[in-house]
Amino acid sequence: SKTLVQTLKKDFENLHPSPLSSSSSLSSSSSLSSSRSPSPLPSPSRVAYLIWRSPWMVAGVPTFIDHLMQRCGWTNVFSDRKARYPEVNDKDLQNARPDLILLSSEPYPFKETHIAELQRLCPTSTIRLVDGELFSWYGSRLLHTPAYLRDLIER
To answer: What are φ and ψ of residue 149, in 5° steps?
Structure first.
């Protein structure tokens, strides 16, 4: 029988297709050991994950957040920054041209007002509030992360 660690490893490996494949599968939310049929990962691929306001701060590399974004097949638009959590300004966000901007629920509690502010800065970006615990906390929360990411990808 599989251990929990083996099951989680498989679920996270299935978030991102191999270089030779254009499909991916994730576990269903009801059982970590059962899997869905492979389905293509949709766009967007260029993503900014914001963790703070005043100043804007984003998840850089190497971070667990960046690793999860990679597992989803997404490119961190701020992966070229030297800091793990670099500060960026309005112009940096505009120049990065992210397809998707994710606003974490923590450590800064982003709200709907921030979506409107960012939509003015980056009018072609899709902007979503996300559960920061599922993107950045290790431990038992990881049990819920594959299903959460599947839902996020499919929305």
So the answer is: -65, -35
